[in-house]
Design brief:
Blueprint lengths: L2 E6 L10 H10 L2 E7 L3 H13 L3 E5 L13 H11 L4 E8 L7 H18 L3 E6 L2 H10 L7 E3 L9 H6 L2 E5 L9 H7 L7 E3 L15 E2 L5 E2 L1
Parallel strand pairs: 1-2, 2-3, 3-4, 4-5, 5-6, 6-7, 7-8
Antiparallel strand pairs: 9-10
Length: 226
């Protein structure tokens, strides 16, 4: 069996005390690949370091919509440099978000457009985050240049009616253990509408935990809270 984690944050500081043990366990389990997603300029170097240490780490560099307001003047240039340095890297995590307070959808869309252009220019796949902005994302994808390597809608939370349109424009969709929560039963039905060849599995570690870990949170420094 090919074991591929389509989306995670193995570099996250909360995992630091456990990272060596986690990596050893993944390798014992036969992990073939894991896409490790950066979310802001401050963590891109950590993702790069992991990719250099482990061949199965597939780096992804991106500016997450939550961190758009803190971007530096050179953020796009630095991102382009990383794509050149890592020819197998993808863009991610990028996207749109209306869930988090204080969102600026116009700024998010501007940054998403710039990162999408990099994906097109460098012929890379992209990992897309979306919360409560599915209509805006659908409109963006319709108008944007086709993604040459496709894009992943990670932890897909959109409607079943949108699946066909996203597939038409090159989308893949990923399912995490979080959707096994009882309150996510309706969303699990949406996943039944996704073509099997477009469906991937992710952990989104250290977040989006499965039911067995409900109430457990990793705090800064790697301590547990429940």
């Amino acid at each position: 069996m090919r074991l591929i984690d389509a989306h995670n944050h193995l570099h996250d500081a909360r995992l630091a005390p456990f990272r060596a043990e986690l990596i050893a366990e993944l390798e014992r389990g036969g992990i073939e690949a894991a896409v490790v997603n950066g979310t802001q300029e401050d963590d891109w170097d950590e993702v790069a370091a992991l990719a250099k240490e482990r061949a199965w780490v597939r780096p992804a560099f991106g500016l997450h919509p939550w961190y758009v307001n803190g971007r530096s003047p050179r953020w796009r240039e630095r991102l382009a440099e990383l794509l050149v340095e890592f020819p197998h890297a993808s863009l991610g995590e990028i996207g749109l978000d209306r869930w988090k307070e204080g969102f600026d959808l116009e700024a998010q869309t501007e940054v998403l457009r710039a990162q999408w252009a990099l994906a097109v220019e460098h012929e890379r796949a992209a990992t897309v985050h979306c919360l409560k902005a599915w209509g805006a994302l659908r409109d963006f994808v319709r108008e944007a240049p086709p993604a040459p390597r496709g894009f992943l809608l990670h932890s897909y939370g959109g409607a079943a009616e949108m699946v066909e349109g996203f597939v038409k424009h090159g989308a893949y969709f990923s399912f995490s253990g979080y959707f096994l929560q009882e309150r996510k039963a309706a969303q699990r039905e949406v996943f039944r509408e996704i073509p099997l060849e477009r469906l991937l599995v992710e952990t989104d570690a250290p977040d989006m935990l499965p039911p067995a870990m409900t109430g457990v949170r990793l705090l800064a420094g790697g301590t547990l809270n429940s």
